[in-house]
Amino acid sequence: MNALGFSAPVLLWALLALPILWWLLRAVPPAPVRRRFPGIALLLGLKDRDPESQRTPWWLLLIRVAALAALIVALAGPVLNPTRALPGQGPLVVVMDASWASARDWPRRIERAAQALEEAQRAGRTVAVVTLTDPPVGALEFRAAEHWRERLPGLAPRPWTPGAALPDWVADLPEGTETLWFSDGLARDGRAALLAALTETGPVQVFQPDTPVIALAPATFDAEGVHVTARRTTGAEQALTLLAVGRDPAGAQRDLARAPLTFEAGALSAEASFDLPPELRNRITRFQIEGLRGAGAVSIADDSLRRRKVGLLAVREGNESLALLSPLHYLRQALEPTADLIESVSIDDLLLAGPDVIVLADMPTMTETETRDLSDWVEDGGLLLRFAGPRMAGAGASASGFVAQADDPLLPVPLRAGGRSVGGAMSWGDPRTLAPFAEDSPFAGLSVPADVGIRAQVLAQPGPDLADRTIAALADGTPLVTRAARGAGQVVLFHVTANAEWSNLPLSGLFVDMLERLSVSTRGAVPEAGEMDGTSWQPEEVMDGFGLLSDAEDRAAIAGADLAPILRGEAQPGPEIPPGLYAGTALRLAVNATDAQTPLNVAQWPMGTNLETGVERQEVPLAGYIFALAALVLMLDSLATLALGGRLLRAAMVVLALGLIGPRAEAQPVDTRIMEATEAVVLGAVSSGDPQVDDVALAGLRGLSTALYLRSSVEPSLPMAVDIEADELSVFPFLYWPVTAESPLPSTEAYARLNAYLRTGGMILFDTRDAEQARLTGGTTAQARRLQQIAAGLDIPPLEPVPDDHVLTRTFYLLSDYPGRYQGGTVWVEASPADAEQAEGMPFRNLNDGVTPVVIGSNDWASAWAVDDAGMPLLPVGRGTTGERQRELALRFGVNLIMHVLSGNYKSDQVHVPALLERLGQ
Amino acid sequence: MTSPASHGGADLRRSGEALSGGLPPLLVAADHLASSVLPGAHGRRRSGSGAEFWQFRPLSPGDGITRIDWRRSARGDDVYLRETEWQAARAVSLWVDSGAAMNFTGDDGRETKAHRARLLAMALGLALLRGGERVGLAEADMPPRAGRAQANALAVALAEEKRAESEHGAIDLHAAPTGGHVVIFSDFLGALEPIEQALAMAAARTMRGILVQVLDPVEEGFPFDGRTRFESMSGHMAFETLRAGDLKAAYLERLAQRKDRLQAMARQSGWHATTLHTDRPASEGLLWLYQALGGGRR
After folding, report:
1. For residue A301, what are the domain limits?
2. pLDDT of B72-94, one tens digit each?
3. Measured distance CA(A516)–CA(B264) in Å, rounded
4. Which domains does chain B have, with CATH numbers?
5. Interface residues from chain B to A (CB-CB < 8 Å)
């Protein structure tokens, strides 16, 4: 299939000149070698014997001629797989699907079409360009190709798919018309028929890129978040990003969230999930695949994605009642899956949260301020949903005897005091059932279950507008739900309780449906067919073929009956109802170019169709490669010339030297201190930020090192001050870290290094040096607070004061106390596991694993250990011999500590000695 | 042995330092070389004028009365003469070509011709000095003298870095004492006329000597090929050829002619001539030189 062509074949004639070049090049000998030679006097006057033979070697000539030949070929513009001209003559019709699926590579289609038009223009053929999604009225106009070339950039894909019917213009095509069909790659009814019709008139060439078509389905959501499913036609592995676009608080469109959308190899669908807070989710206007164009890669979000914020006023009751008796229990159950609930005992708090709906269950009285605030909120568009109850019924009676607050703005209708009870134990009648809902009721269409019965209710005061305000009534005509508009909002009253006390309505599915109809809750369900009838939907935004949304401006409203089949997936969007956002009275609905049912199958063309995918026969200009080849050959030539002149080695050395300069500069200096620290055990002192304290710490470690050297087989080198920000910590088995109130906090990197150090077996002894102060003040000292701040970033396990049987008490010396310069401060180590058991017959628990990574104390050990250069104690400890004893104990603690660091729980393992001896004996 | 690289630009200073502290490097190397040549025996092993006792011999006719050793003669009836060992010292003048051409070496691992020539001269000087000869340079301020001090002076003078302007040094034997010996170290690749004139002058002054041609193996073998531009060491002369390999035969022929001519010139003046190569051990050449000078005894 591969073919080679040239864009400027004339230049190839220059290849004929190569023999001349050969001859010319031969005359140029290589550069002479310069040599110092004392015997030159003997050479003077000698003649070259054979001047003809002093010519360039043939292989050098060959290299040069090859380089020139490559240059000439490159300039001639070689092209692999040059696009073949359309066969045939006569009129040409360019058919474009121009559907949403074509948008993904629209520029390529336009480019290809422009190419075809250019060829047609050269051949002087007449052309007609037709888009199937926007077919012309009447017959096709065959015009000169220039005419169409000018109009080509104005063509745009439409966000719907072509109709299945054979277009009218096909019948009028003149005989011999050649067709170039830009297919969107999707199988579709009517494609075969159109192809057959076009093939009858003349040859058909199909241009169909084999990039996958991706279509988004509308977003769904459940408790885990929002899910958007994408489907595609072909199955290579593909990683995309889905953007959730919406308005930011400033009102500008921006990406609110991103989620990966990854197609596994072979999978035809993938799902992206967003876990978003409700505030963010409610602002989402559309989902969009990043980097993909086309209406299929955009999914408009409508009200079905929004969850309403419902404020529940928790009942102010002192006693703790059973959950099932709580007036709010059934509301919570009904609303939780579909709405965001806010509960508070304070109206003010609820209002601050800005809910869409506030539910008051059996809340008879409110303070004047609360009433005012609530009614203001309702006037601004809030929905106040109230439920009756014993207290509401009782309040009316006690207030004015007969009429309860006739002008209460928070009740849709005035209530009669007392209410009534039917069908109860003390009454004669059966529970009342519901009457079917009236046509103009928002509940119209909901079926009334027969077993819903009302046992008690509050009664509305009869009035002229009571009938208008009633949206649900009992079978005997008494209002059950009343509603009144207040400003932009409304107030709705259920005349029964929200719990099962007065009726079993809250137990029924009808309750949930009713709440939904009242827009208290919303659900992603498409409105029922009947519901849509007679409604009218105003387009707010419409989408074009590229997936861009624009204002619908003054498009005519759409009848609900027309919109419904599209929403149900029974019909496809078309020119009359383009994808976009449609607003009804209380709801906005999105019509997307694609949904979960949109058929996505690769178009199959009959055998023998002239199919052009635009990929496998893509033109590959080779000029660049051949230029590179020429440059390579020329480079070879210079190398060869250098070699001939004997200077190749020198040139190579120069290149090498240049190459070596770089890496050498990067060589890292070896920290000599750290190198020294690797050669022996070296104790490290971390800087506290106070030079005096640091000096004492270093002197203390020196004293401890000396003691270790004298008393044990540990022979440490001189201790070092450690900079946790810069030094390699892993060479220090033990760090002493005195903490002052002003100790600097380590940087984030230092924390990472310290945590790695602790995890890999290092030990840090934190010393706040304030045991005395802590004992006197009895509170948390500044140093301890600082230590808490420092340790906050460290990976420190749970701690406990050193238990009596901790291995630290017996690693070298037997210790029961850990004094430093001060006495009595608590020493903390890693807590022993809770399941540690005391071994039988042993004085210690079986604590075998884990060297504590930190020891925290406040006894100022370094000061007790500190020695001067002469090895004498630096600082006084205690008084007299008691003090010396204390210093000795401090040193012993230090020795034990280092032994613990170096030998771990070796001493603890000795609990096994009896068992081992016993085994050996056998 | 001193590496050839040590004869760089800073050699003058180094020589001065070495002199103040001990022996210059050249002296050390030459000393080593000289001791490998001389078995340690001194003297001419024949009677002659000298301070050392050589032998008593019976008086023979023609001997002067004054030479009778009366103390020996009084012990018996015969009359004895006391003979002393011949210790007549010769004056040997050394001349080392300081031209730029001598700084050539065909291989970086090999010492330059100049270095080899100076080393040979120094070693020969040392050997002769130990033999009691007077050794100097054929220069105005270095007349032949005997003694250890002269060795140091010789070493300093030889190790001294001379900035070579011309291709070959101008030979001048006027400072050499009449009747003495002269040893000339050069590659003799320059013009031969000055050499000829110098030899004629030396012959007129009854001087005898050796022409030592020091050559690098590259000069002997001419291993070049291809287009080459030859330049003299001082850069004054240049010669370009398109194919150096073709010139090899002609070059070698000219070199052989030149050697023959040198031999002829030496023979005419009663001198010796030899060719030494820098890739051969220096001791080899030294031995020959020493023998040749010894053979010239009188």
Report:
1. 221-307+522-599
2. 889 988 888 888 766 556 788 88
3. 133
4. 4-40+88-295 (3.40.50), 53-84 (no CATH)
5. 101-102, 104, 113, 167, 187, 189-191, 216, 218-219, 222, 224, 226-233, 237-243, 246-247, 250-251, 254-255, 258
